Automatic annotation (TrEMBL):
<keyword id="KW-0443">Lipid metabolism</keyword>
<keyword id="KW-1133">Transmembrane helix</keyword>
<comment type="pathway">
    <text>Lipid metabolism; phospholipid metabolism.</text>
</comment>
<dbReference type="InterPro" id="IPR003811">
    <property type="entry name" value="G3P_acylTferase_PlsY"/>
</dbReference>
<keyword id="KW-0472">Membrane</keyword>
<comment type="similarity">
    <text>Belongs to the PlsY family.</text>
</comment>
<keyword id="KW-0812">Transmembrane</keyword>
<dbReference type="GO" id="GO:0004366">
    <property type="term" value="F:glycerol-3-phosphate O-acyltransferase activity"/>
</dbReference>
<keyword id="KW-1208">Phospholipid metabolism</keyword>
<keyword id="KW-0444">Lipid biosynthesis</keyword>
<keyword id="KW-1003">Cell membrane</keyword>
<keyword id="KW-0808">Transferase</keyword>
<feature type="transmembrane region" description="Helical">
    <location>
        <begin position="146"/>
        <end position="165"/>
    </location>
</feature>
<dbReference type="Pfam" id="PF02660">
    <property type="entry name" value="G3P_acyltransf"/>
</dbReference>
<keyword id="KW-0594">Phospholipid biosynthesis</keyword>
<feature type="transmembrane region" description="Helical">
    <location>
        <begin position="86"/>
        <end position="109"/>
    </location>
</feature>
<comment type="function">
    <text>Catalyzes the transfer of an acyl group from acyl-phosphate (acyl-PO(4)) to glycerol-3-phosphate (G3P) to form lysophosphatidic acid (LPA). This enzyme utilizes acyl-phosphate as fatty acyl donor, but not acyl-CoA or acyl-ACP.</text>
</comment>
Length: 219
């Protein structure tokens, strides 16, 4: 019963609609009606600028971290002998937060793709793996300026690191890593199609962005 309550709490934490609340509260618009229509950090960055986008990204990451930290509320899982059960619980809590981000109860169940929250979740469980994935993401972003391509390659790097570099022994975490990569690829099918046709939008780096950008692209 306690685990179920924590999963519900994790979902509610994930449902904090950062992009929607920032766009409405500060800019007087609904981010879901502009740009790609996605209530995530990337669309916020493109539509509202780097400051708002960075804030949304950080808060969305913190949602994933906080969801994982809920596991600390149950002493049973802090015993080293219960490591497998702890990992399973943490994965469940993290996924509940991601589900909340994608389908937020506080924002009509219309959220983002959950990449930042997913990253926060991984950062809380496997910080070194998460940081290496960030390095991959930033490298690809710097070379190509494509956020979608950077997200896809970083997500593929995740199971590669887990399986072959860090050689994670927990079966469910290995399965989770592979599932994450597949999920990101599947949710970016439209972006992949645009990358192939050369119509995917690039994100300019080191430039200030002002005003609303009504672009038809996805995160």
């Amino acid at each position: 019963m306690t685990e179920l309550l924590l999963l519900i709490c994790a979902y509610l934490i994930g449902s904090i609609a950062t992009a929607v609340w920032v766009s409405k509260g500060v800019f007087g618009i609904d981010i879901r009606e502009h740009g790609s229509g996605n209530a995530g950090a990337t669309n916020t960055f493109r539509v509202l600028g780097p400051k708002a986008g960075t804030f949304v990204m950080v808060v969305d990451m913190l949602k994933g971290i906080l969801a994982i930290k809920l596991s600390l509320l149950i002493p049973y899982y802090q015993n080293p002998d219960n490591l497998t059960q702890l990992v399973n619980l943490q994965i469940g809590l993290g996924l509940a937060a991601v589900l909340g981000h994608v389908f937020p109860i506080w924002a009509g169940f219309r959220g983002g793709k959950g990449i930042a929250t997913l990253f926060g979740m991984v950062l809380a469980i496997q910080p070194w793996v998460a940081l290496l994935c960030v390095a991959v993401f930033l490298l690809i972003l710097f070379l190509t300026r494509y956020v979608s391509l950077s997200s896809i390659i970083a997500s593929i790097a995740f199971p590669v690191l887990i399986l072959f570099i860090f050689k994670e022994e927990e079966l469910y975490y290995r399965i989770f890593a592979i599932a994450v990569a597949l999920m990101v690829v599947l949710t970016h099918q439209k972006n992949i199609a645009r990358l192939i046709t050369g119509t995917e939008s690039k994100v300019p780096l080191f430039k200030n962005r002002r005003g609303l950008r009504r672009r038809r692209d996805e995160e």
